[in-house]
Amino acid sequence: MAVRTGCTNFNTVEFLHALHLIRIATFKSSSILSGWAKTGLIPYNPEVVLTRLRRQTAVVRLSTPPEL
After folding, report:
1. What is the mean pLDDT of residues 55-67?
2. From the CA atom positions of the chain, what is the Rg in Å?
3. Which single residue of 12, 33, 58, 62 has CA 20 to 30 Å from 48?
């Protein structure tokens, strides 16, 4: 946020103050629960990760030259 307003030079005290405000803005229960859900941990759903791995594997296989 400070960079957006033109401030690019933080001293230690300014950094710690900004860090505190950032933590307050980002560490919300809704953000934390959303993160757990997107990893498939709560509620437990391993398909979330397995589906992503299958997609990545498919992309890698498509870009690999065929064996002769």
Report:
1. 69
2. 21
3. 62
